[in-house]
Amino acid sequence: DGAVILTEALSNVSQEFVKLDISNCGVRSCDMIGIFRSIASTGILELNISGNSIEQK
User: Which of 5, 27, 52, 55 has the maximal Cβ count within 10 Å?
Assistant: First the structure.
């Protein structure tokens, strides 16, 4: 699953980057928790998640 791979990659990032665009990538609501947790430990300042199937619960 791509979200799992992204989460693992973000957890092991060795360089700082400030922008992540995962728009229109098919990311689902259930994938977002892991992605957000991984992003919290990086220096990302801008995150684009538009165009994904994210539902408000």
Answer: 27
Closest listed residue to residue 40, CA positions, set 22, 13, 5 = 13
Reported as a single tens digit per residue, the pLDDT across 6-20 is: 888 888 877 777 899
What pTM did the predictor assign?
0.73
SS3 state of residue 37: helix
Q: Is 43 helix (H, G, I), strand (E, B) or coil?
A: coil
Q: Rounded to whole angstroms, how far apart are CA atoms 15 and 9?
A: 11
* DSSP H helical ranges for the chain: 2-11, 29-40
| Rounded-to-integer distance, Cα 24 and Cα 17, Å | 20
In whole angstroms, what is the distance from residue 53 CA to residue 49 CA?
9
